[in-house]
Amino acid sequence: MTSSASNKASRIAVHILLIAGAVLMIMPFLWMLSTSFKSFADSMKVPPALFPAEWHFENYSKVLETIDFARYYGNTLLITVSRTAGQLLLCSLAAYSFASLKFPGKNIIFLAMLAVLMVPSQVVMIPSFVIMRELDWLDTFYVLIIPGIFSAFGTFLLRQFFMTLPKDLEEAAKIDGCSYFRIYWNIYLPLSKSALVSLAIFTILASWNELLWPLIMTSSEDMRVLSIGISTFQGQHSTDYPLLMAGAVMATLPIIILFIFLQRYFIEGIAMNGIKA
Amino acid sequence: MKQRRNPSKLSIREAAWGYLFILPVVLGLAIFYMVPSAASLFLSFTAWDGMSSPVFNGIDNFAQLAADGKFTRSLLNTLLYTIATVPLSIAFAVILAVLLNQKIKGMVLYRTLYFIPVITMPIAVGMVWKWLYNSEFGLINFVLGTLHLPQPNWLFDEKFALFSIVIVSVWTSIGYNAVILLSGLQGISASYYEAASLDGAGTLYRFFRITLPLLTPSLFFVLVMSFINSFQVFDLVFIMMGQQSSLLDSTRTVVYNIWEDGFKYFNMGYASAQAFILFIIILVITAFQMYFQKRWVHYQ
């Protein structure tokens, strides 16, 4: 066999392996999608059919009628957007200060912040509950948004990125008499779009998918987020899988679409995360 | 040139802005993370229902935990879960990363497909797998049946329940680990491979003697993170086993137990003690990994 022929054969083998794996990876999704269009009876058919016998698009509108899906959606969106905007602003400000400004105690404060990264979230869960109760924040948007704005991870990620930026622009701006805030705003932020988008994606993903925190900190119907809404939905309709799946599709779809558009930044962000080790 | 003549004034100004810029994050982290962490340690030594004032009870919680069958079971389950999930996920991720590192068409599409499980809401993941596992109407047992293989009652069989959750975790984490490993692979200089092919080294030789050793820094990161995440598993157990399942004990994990004792039964001091033990376990395991990394991690 010539070397190019063996190259071709190995490329085909790689494709076959990757396709087989990809089928296993997305099968659950296809199953979720297919089930979401089936009638209740159809979903219980033995043997299970890959495609619905009839397409029941109304499953989706039924979900909207059965549970207050629009509210959960709105809540989740509000929380995700506020947390992401807040983190981007506050973490980047702090990261700029840690990366570029000089002040006494900087290293110690930075180390203390890194220590926060090592404490598992379950350790803080119980005292947090008490603090939130004392603040009278339980079952409000405050508890779902504000603690999530402060991120040691986000500050660390951006600080690492800011450290790699060349200093000459900043020096020139200082000589021109630019204020520190303007240097941050007009030089650091525009040069760090990819890092900011990476952080945004991590925050969006964490806020959108979060379960344990809202489960503990909220109780009323008004404050429900998507993941909780769907989990209670399962209790109410323990056997109606088509409706459940329609709800799951609706909850997941925005993130998947966002991922497809921003996937380059996702991958870069994760790679960056790996490098820091 | 006023600034040049007055450097001390300038540095005071710089420090003032420096403090101001970090103030919001530092204050927020202190209130919402540092104070609760310290409080958690304190609460571990109290009996507390979450309402009245905590009553100091020394090491009672820890003594009680040592004899608490549910807690030891949850520790054991978490350990089994971790031991099964971490190697499986990393092994598949290495294979996937190596495949994705070939110069082939459709790389972006493959990467997207393999990454979708990572970004999906855990609730949705748990529900669809629960449906796939269903013993009567589920797709998995249907496929196994047509292949004349045994059809276990996955989530409702003591022997299989934990393993069923392991499968789902592996499925969700492969893509994430593979992306980190892929970035590690792409950092390996091509010159190593050129030198090896001049020596006539085969594919397997190149994999075990070049790729794997040079991948160890990324592998180390993936290993540490996977351990930490596995020890904190909650969402999948919560959604797949439900709260009523009579089989819950066979999948009860530490975080599930903390949630149940703390927020269902309001034994908050007792739950804090468990969270503290979990923290120590994760810390010790991470420290071990840090210590032993020099035995097997090669930095280029």
How would you summarize what this structure contains?
Chain A: Residues 73-262 form the ABC transmembrane type-1 domain. The complex is a heterodimer of chains A (277) and B (300). Chain A is an all-alpha fold and 277 residues long.
Spell out the key features of this protein.
heterodimer, A: 277 residues, mainly alpha, 14 helices, 77% helix, globular, B: 300 residues, two-stranded antiparallel sheet, 13 helices, 75% helix, 1% strand
Overall outline of chain B: globular
Topology order of chain B in helix (H) and strand (E) letters: HHEEHHHHHHHHHHH
Residues in β-strands, percent of chain A: under 5%
Largest interface: A-B, 93 and 96 residues
What is the rounded distance between the termini of chain B?
A: 47 Å
Return Rg of chain A in Å.
Answer: 24 Å
Quaternary structure classification? heterodimer
The value of Rg of chain B in angstroms is 25 Å
Strand content of chain B: under 5%
The count of strands of chain A amounts to 0
- Tell me the distance between the termini of chain A: 43 Å
Can you characterise this structure?
Chain A: Belongs to the binding-protein-dependent transport system permease family. Chain A: It comes from Paenibacillus azoreducens. Chain A: This is Sugar ABC transporter permease. Chain A: It is found in: Cell membrane. Chain A: Its main location: membrane. The complex is a heterodimer of chains A (277) and B (300). By secondary structure, chain A is mainly α. Helix content of chain A is 77%, strand content 0%. Chain A contains 14 helices and no strands. Chain A has helices at 3-36, 40-43, 58-66, 69-100, 106-118, 121-134, 141-145, 152-163, 168-175, 180-191, 193-209, 212-217, 226-236, 241-276. The relative contact order of chain A is 0.13. With 300 residues, chain B is mostly helical. Helices cover 75% and strands 1% of the residues of chain B. Chain B has helices at residues 2-5, 7-43, 60-66, 69-100, 107-119, 122-133, 139-146, 161-186, 190-198, 203-231, 235-241, 254-264, 268-296, and strands at residues 46-47, 55-56. Chain B has a two-stranded antiparallel sheet with strand order 1-2.
